[in-house]
């Protein structure tokens, strides 16, 4: 299979799995590492469906997934990085702002990605070197300076030690931009940057399945996606900060952080 065929298989699997999310009822949350880190039977069922569909499409493929400790070798020739429901707390609380996020990599090189928000029927896709798209139409990051853009951010709720720094940066961003948004899905926040809806995004601790697909979308839409200090994002099992934006807003916030360090 070529990369475009693999992307088509990812999209088909996500569309099938979306029915489980849209028709969910009686949702019960279980705590994983704490009261803010929850999982539901639907997270597991969506992940199972995705891995089954993608295994059938690409036999022998490996998986690095959020649920059930499915963490295969990241150096695999064919690897899918999956967050079955990004924004699980939104899903549990009926806020209808969640998505399915999948990136495909080969030997740690990100080759394509798809993020699907079933509530809005919005499908974000990217192939390395081929641009980023929303429902088949090209998207681009906002080229405006920080002062003329919205900022989306996450509060890294599983990392309570980062809260003070998170809210310090949020205040800097609020004062320097049009406004800030905290919407509860890192993958969809990165999509908002890729689509030019927001000029900037940051969060101080994310897992690979949270950002692998979204980072490729931002980059293919003409933006930057790094750690908060500007260094390259790791593609391993760590939990780095993530900082993404259009070139102008990204540079503006870099300068602002340096001036207020």
Q: How would you characterize the overall build of this protein?
A:
With 261 residues, the protein is α+β, with helices and mostly antiparallel strands. The protein has two domains: 3-139, Fructose-1,6-Bisphosphatase, Chain A, domain 1 (2-Layer Sandwich), CATH 3.30.540; 146-259, D-Maltodextrin-Binding Protein, domain 2. It contains seven helices and 14 strands. The strands form three sheets. It has a seven-stranded mixed β-sheet, sandwiched between helices. The longest helix is centred in the first third of the chain and has 20 residues, at 3-22. It is globular and about 50 Å long.
What's the number of extended β-strand segments? 14
Mean pLDDT over the residues: 94
Distance N to C terminus: 48 Å
Note poorly predicted spans.
none
Order of helices and strands: HEEHEEHEEEEEEHEHEHEEH
* Spatial strand arrangement across the major sheet: 3-4-5-6-7-8-9
**Which class do the helix and strand fractions yield?**
alpha+beta
Under CATH, the topology of the largest domain can be stated as Fructose-1,6-Bisphosphatase, Chain A, domain 1
Query: How many domains, in number, for the residues?
Result: 2
Largest sheet: 7 strands, mixed
Broad CATH class of the largest domain = Alpha Beta
Percent strand equals 25-35%
Just name the CATH architecture of the largest domain.
2-Layer Sandwich
The rough form would be described as globular
Please identify which CATH superfamily of the largest domain we are dealing with.
Answer: Fructose-1,6-Bisphosphatase, subunit A, domain 1
Q: From the alpha-carbon coordinates, what is the Rg to the nearest angstrom?
A: 17 Å
How many helix segments? 7
Q: Give the % helix.
A: 25-40%
């Amino acid at each position: 299979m070529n990369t475009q065929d693999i992307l088509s298989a990812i999209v088909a699997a996500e569309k099938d799995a979306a029915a489980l999310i849209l028709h969910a009822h009686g949702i019960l949350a279980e705590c994983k590492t704490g009261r803010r880190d929850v999982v539901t039977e639907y997270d597991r069922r969506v992940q199972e469906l995705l891995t089954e569909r993608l295994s059938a499409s690409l036999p022998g493929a490996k998986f690095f997934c959020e649920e059930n400790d499915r963490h295969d070798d990241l150096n695999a020739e064919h690897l899918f990085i999956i967050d079955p429901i990004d924004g699980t707390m939104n899903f549990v609380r009926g806020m209808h702002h969640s998505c399915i996020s999948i990136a495909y990599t080969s030997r740690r090189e990100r080759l394509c990605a798809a993020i699907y928000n079933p509530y809005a029927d919005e499908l974000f896709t990217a192939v390395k070197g081929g641009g980023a798209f929303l429902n088949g139409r090209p998207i681009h990051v906002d080229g405006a300076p920080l002062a003329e853009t919205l900022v989306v951010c996450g509060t890294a709720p599983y990392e309570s030690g980062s809260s003070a720094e998170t809210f310090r940066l949020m205040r800097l961003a609020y004062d320097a931009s049009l406004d800030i948004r905290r919407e509860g899905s890192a993958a969809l926040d990165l999509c908002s940057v890729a689509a030019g809806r927001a000029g900037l995004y940051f969060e101080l601790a994310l897992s690979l399945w949270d950002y692998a697909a979204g980072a490729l979308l931002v980059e293919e839409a003409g933006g930057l996606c790094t750690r908060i200090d500007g260094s390259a994002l790791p593609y391993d099992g760590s939990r780095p900060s993530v900082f993404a934006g259009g070139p102008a807003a990204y540079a503006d916030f870099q300068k602002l952080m340096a001036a207020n360090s």
